[in-house]
Write a structure and sequence with these properties.
Length: about 280
């Protein structure tokens, strides 16, 4: 009798793995991308573009920025597409005085961006162009001049501010000032001289609301004006805040043309990209 075990019978080889279809891989990738974008937009940042000059000199028309959502908690306003998924603010949060915040207009829910000036319980008033908080004037000092290149066919806020630069290019030259709030936050504002909205009534900010102002004081429809679509914003509910403006991720001077790809680069204001707010 032989000690050698009999050779096993040949077993059939397993069938070759079915190759994945490229279409299946693409669908999975796109689904993952959608999930990542939704998480990013829901919990982390929301993008916003500056449509006007109301926040000059810090922000210029054509700036694109990210607003951080987590500092103030989450509300319906901070949800993608303004979906009513959250009631109130979760967790409850309040902007600091001096923050630049993106918020929904109290009437038509359009996105706006302004600086937080008054918190609940504050008394806010403008007296001859000087901001007053709780009866005390906010320190305001002259801080040079803001010079902005004038777009072709454009114009300055008022004719007296238009000047030509050394090379003959038209510019807008605006008086610039620095304000310092009681909590030490300091920032630049523009002031064109005494205007109607430079002296106001005393506004008492109610609980759960904010008093918002644009840094371009004579070219901003803000909490000094009643909440009307396309005009003032009135006193803004805290629940309407989307997030805190964080940094500029792109900026363009508006001269780019879709049919001229090289202008996409020449129109970019590269020095503003990555700038904090």
């Amino acid at each position: 009798m032989s000690d050698t075990a009999p050779a096993p019978a040949d077993t059939p080889a397993p069938p070759p793995a079915k190759p994945k279809k490229e279409e299946d891989s693409l669908v999975v990738f796109l689904l993952k991308l959608v999930v990542v974008v939704l998480i990013f937009r829901t919990l982390i940042f929301s993008s916003f573009s500056i449509p006007s000059e109301s926040m000059m000199p810090r922000l210029l028309e054509g700036d694109y920025l990210f607003a951080a959502k987590w500092p103030y908690g989450y509300s319906q306003a901070s949800m993608p597409f303004d979906l009513p998924l959250v009631s109130g603010r979760v967790p409850a949060g309040m902007p600091d005085r001096g923050d630049v915040a993106v918020f929904k207009h109290p009437v038509d829910r359009v996105d706006y961006i302004k600086r937080v000036i008054g918190l609940p319980g504050d008394q806010v008033q403008m007296v001859n162009g000087v901001l007053h908080l709780n009866g005390d004037p906010v320190r305001k000092t002259r801080d040079g001049t803001l010079v902005v290149s004038l777009r072709e066919g454009g114009r300055c806020a008022e004719p007296q501010f238009q000047q030509d630069s050394a090379d003959g290019a038209p510019t807008c030259s605006y008086p610039r000032f620095r304000e310092t709030l009681p909590n030490g936050v300091t920032y630049e504002v523009l002031d064109f001289g005494l205007r109607q909205a430079d002296t106001t009534q005393t506004f008492i900010v109610p609980e759960g609301h904010l008093f918002m102002m644009g840094d371009n004081r004579d070219n901003s429809l803000d909490s000094r004006f009643p909440a009307v679509p396309g005009q003032g914003v009135g006193l803004v509910p805290v629940e309407n805040v989307v997030g805190r403006a964080s940094f500029v991720f792109f900026s363009t001077d508006g001269t780019a043309e879709w049919l001229k790809p090289w202008t996409w680069f020449t129109a970019a204001r590269w020095s503003r990209i990555g700038r904090g707010i």
